[in-house]
């Protein structure tokens, strides 16, 4: 009997579009086809939203063409500050009553008019508090205009949107499938994109915290551009060549008693600015330092907020993803600033490449950028 293809994973980022077609092969998941295309092939970022939309559509069509994907249904995702995620604990109640209760809860927790947002929810688990049963509920809202613009890109490329997810949850799907963490593990997942860094904390067998931070690789490039007065393309080249600032050897061991931080280095740079190394490379490094200090501060605040909410539970490690995570010295900087072990996710750790399709050398350079796309494809298999 003919079995239709599962919906494809479509990851529309701020700089690239990635499409992933997965299939179930017995107990194994295989990546059957994939494609990637740049949204701004010339490097120029038009300010007109209509031009940006047209470039996204063209990039999506290009990625589909590269992948030779014929399937039409999609699972895609959105991210940004228009996405609000809340974790609620409510008394046990029937599902129809829960929907009504969530409308009241949404008015308190969502800083937008309810007429402006799409709302969804999921029961994460149940617990007993004495004689009372309670439900842990995930509440997610997204501004309608964000979703509508996103869906318009999908449809303009000739595709049919079936599910619109959230980036941080797609990344979590990828992590769970590939690493099969134990329920008691507590892991901070940090996916650093071009404009947004998405966080999701896995704990108690699922998501217990999610947040999008408006800092990404593009902000580092823009900071270098402003510091050096060069073009965006040249700033991007310098960023990719140099990466994050080197970390002193004495601070690399998480067990070290070294107490310095990136902020200390920045203060020292400011204090000694007159005698500092003012080569373009050194100035670019200082520009990246300033952006990273803000990112580390927000990640640290998020982890502290989570640990204060769940007394006695601490994040044990960090898993990074996204293209910016691969910059030189990025892992070492994260370990130094957050004092936790850090690793880069492998989205294909347990996902095989189809024997008649993709070759390992074709995907080697971008495999660690596929976290969201693979996570969306995994959800497509279950759709």
Structural overview:
The radius of gyration is 22 Å and the shape is globular. The longest helix has 30 residues, at 280-309. A hairpin with a 2-residue loop joins strand 6 and strand 7. Strands 8-4-1-2-3-14 form a six-stranded mixed sheet, sandwiched between helices. A five-stranded mixed sheet has the order 11-10-9-12-13, with helices on both faces. It folds into three domains: 8-80 and 144-180 and 346-382, ATPase, nucleotide binding domain (Nucleotidyltransferase, domain 5); 83-141, Dna Ligase, domain 1; 217-343, Nucleotidyltransferase, domain 5. It has eleven helices and 14 strands. It is an alpha/beta fold.
What characteristic shape results from the CA principal axes? globular
- By CATH, the topology of the largest domain is Nucleotidyltransferase, domain 5
Uncertain runs are 267-275
Report on the biggest sheet: 6 strands, mixed
- The structural class is alpha/beta
With strands numbered from the N-terminus, the spatial order across the biggest sheet is 8-4-1-2-3-14
CATH class of the largest domain: Alpha Beta
What's a concise summary of this model?
Helix content is 39%, strand content 27%. It is of the alpha/beta class and 383 residues long. The longest helix has 30 residues, at 280-309.
Topology:
Layout: E1 8-12, E2 16-25, E3 28-38, H1 49-67, E4 73-78, E5 83-91, H2 95-109, E6 117-129, E7 132-143, H3 144-156, E8 160-166, H4 167-179, E9 187-192, E10 197-203, E11 206-213, H5 217-228, H6 232-242, H7 262-271, H8 280-309, E12 317-321, H9 330-338, E13 342-344, E14 351-353, H10 360-363, H11 371-382
Parallel strand pairs: 1-4, 3-14, 4-8, 9-12, 12-13
Antiparallel strand pairs: 1-2, 2-3, 5-7, 6-7, 9-10, 10-11
């Amino acid at each position: 009997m003919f079995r239709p293809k599962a919906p494809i994973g479509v990851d529309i980022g701020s700089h690239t579009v990635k499409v992933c077609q997965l299939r179930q092969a017995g107990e194994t998941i295989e990546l059957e086809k994939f494609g990637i295309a740049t949204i701004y092939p010339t490097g120029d970022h038009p300010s007109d939203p209509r031009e940006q939309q047209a470039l996204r559509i063209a990039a999506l069509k290009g990625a589909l063409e590269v992948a030779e994907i014929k399937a039409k249904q999609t699972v895609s995702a959105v991210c940004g500050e228009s996405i609000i995620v809340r974790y609620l604990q409510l008394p046990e109640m029937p599902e129809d009553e829960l929907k009504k209760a969530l409308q009241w809860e949404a008015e308190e927790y969502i800083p937008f008019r309810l007429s402006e947002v799409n709302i969804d929810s999921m029961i994460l688990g149940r617990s007993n508090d004495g004689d009372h049963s309670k439900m842990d509920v995930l509440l997610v809202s997204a501004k309608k205009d964000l979703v509508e613009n996103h869906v318009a890109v999908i449809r303009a490329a000739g595709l049919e949107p079936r599910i619109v997810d959230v980036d941080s949850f797609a990344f979590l799907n990828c992590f769970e499938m590939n690493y099969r963490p134990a329920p008691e593990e507590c892991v901070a997942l940090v996916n650093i994109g071009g404009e947004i860094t998405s966080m999701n904390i896995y704990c108690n067998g699922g998501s217990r915290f999610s947040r999008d931070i408006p800092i990404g690789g593009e902000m580092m490039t823009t900071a270098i551009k402003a510091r050096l007065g060069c073009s965006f393309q040249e700033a991007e080249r310098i960023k990719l060549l140099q990466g994050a600032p080197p970390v002193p050897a004495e601070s690399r061991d998480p067990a070290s008693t070294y107490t310095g931080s990136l902020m200390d280095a920045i203060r020292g740079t400011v204090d000694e600015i007159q005698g500092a190394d003012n080569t373009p490379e050194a100035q670019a490094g200082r520009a990246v330092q300033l952006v990273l200090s803000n990112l580390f501060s927000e990640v640290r605040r998020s982890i502290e907020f989570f640990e204060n909410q769940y007394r006695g539970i601490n994040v044990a490690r960090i898993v990074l993803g996204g293209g910016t995570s691969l910059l030189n010295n990025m892992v070492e900087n994260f370990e130094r600033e957050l004092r936790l072990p850090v690793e880069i996710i492998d989205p294909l750790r347990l996902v095989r490449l189809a024997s008649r399709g993709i070759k390992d050398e074709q995907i080697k350079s971008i495999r660690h950028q596929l976290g969201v796309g693979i996570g969306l494809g995994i959800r497509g298999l279950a759709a």
